[in-house]
C-alpha cells in the first residue's frame, strides 16, 4: 500500500499520541532516518529500549508510524518507518469542543518548544559547522501587513517552494549526490498580532 503524502491529524486520540514530548522526538528522528529500530532511537534520546518500544507502538496504534522491511538478519529487531511523508495538524479540526481546543493548544506549545530547542542546539554548536553552513543558515523576522487570505496564499507559496527544494534534494541524493548534504530544519511561523 503506498504511503500517504501528508497525513492530516483530525482526531483527538492521534493528536494526544503525537503531542507527547518523547513520542514527538521519536517521530522526528524516525522521519529523518527513514527507518530505525527502537535500539537505534533509544541511543539518540538516551532512554531505555523498552520505553522507546512502548512509545513507538503507541505511535503505530494511531497510524503515525508502521513496521518497515527488516534491514538486518536479526529477526528480533523490529524496524519502523513513518506511515506518511509528513503530518499536518490544522486548527479548524480541533475547534468544536473545549477539550480539543486545549489539546491542540498544548500540542502547538510542545512543538514550538521542541523547535526552539533544535535551534538553540544549532546556536550552541554553530562554531562546529564552519563558515559555509553558518553563512547559509539564517534567521529573520518579517513584519507584514496582510489579510488572512493573503497570509494563506503566502503559506501555500512557501509550501510549494519547500516541496520543490525537498524533492530536488532527495532526487539528487538518490542519484548519488551526497557530498556536503545535511539535514536542514526550516521553522516558519506566520501569525497575526496587534500593537
Count of separate DSSP helical elements: 6
Q: Tell me the major beta sheet.
A: 3 strands, antiparallel
Strand order of the largest sheet: 2-4-3
Q: Radius of gyration over alpha carbons? A: 19 Å
The topology string of helices and strands comes to: EHHEHHEEEHH
Low-confidence stretches: none
Walkthrough of the structure:
The protein has 195 residues and is mainly α. The protein is built from six helices and five strands. A three-stranded antiparallel β-sheet has the order 2-4-3. It is globular, with a radius of gyration of 19 Å. The model has no long low-confidence stretch (mean pLDDT 93).
Write the layout of secondary structure elements.
Layout (H helix, E strand, L loop, with lengths): L6 E3 L2 H7 L2 H13 L2 E2 H8 L3 H13 L3 E3 L11 E4 L4 E3 L8 H39 L11 H27 L21
Parallel strand pairs: 1-5
Antiparallel strand pairs: 2-4, 3-4
Helix pairs in contact: 1-5, 2-4, 3-4
List keywords for this structure.
single chain, 195 residues, two-stranded parallel sheet, 55% helix
Amino acid at each position: 500500500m503506498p504511503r500517504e503524502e501528508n497525513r492530516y491529524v483530525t482526531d483527538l486520540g492521534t493528536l494526544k499520541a503525537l503531542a507527547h514530548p518523547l513520542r514527538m522526538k521519536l517521530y522526528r528522528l524516525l522521519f529523518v532516518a527513514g527507518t530505525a529500530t527502537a535500539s537505534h532511537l533509544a541511543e539518540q534520546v538516551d532512554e531505555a529500549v523498552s520505553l522507546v518500544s512502548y512509545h513507538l507502538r503507541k505511535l503505530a496504534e494511531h497510524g503515525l508510524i508502521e513496521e518497515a522491511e527488516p534491514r538486518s538478519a536479526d529477526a528480533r529487531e523490529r524496524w519502523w518507518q513513518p506511515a506518511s511523508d509528513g503530518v499536518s495538524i490544522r486548527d479548524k479540526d480541533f475547534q468544536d469542543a473545549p477539550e480539543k481546543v486545549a489539546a491542540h493548544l498544548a500540542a502547538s506549545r510542545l512543538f514550538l518548544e521542541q523547535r526552539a530547542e533544535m535551534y538553540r542546539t544549532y546556536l550552541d554548536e554553530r562554531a562546529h559547522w564552519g563558515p559555509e553552513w553558518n553563512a547559509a543558515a539564517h534567521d529573520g523576522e518579517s513584519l507584514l501587513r496582510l489579510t488572512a487570505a493573503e497570509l494563506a496564499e503566502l503559506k501555500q507559496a512557501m509550501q510549494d517552494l519547500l516541496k520543490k527544494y525537498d524533492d530536488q534534494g532527495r532526487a539528487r541524493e538518490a542519484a548519488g549526490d551526497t557530498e556536503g548534504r545535511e539535514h536542514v530544519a526550516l521553522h516558519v511561523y506566520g501569525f497575526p498580532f496587534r500593537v
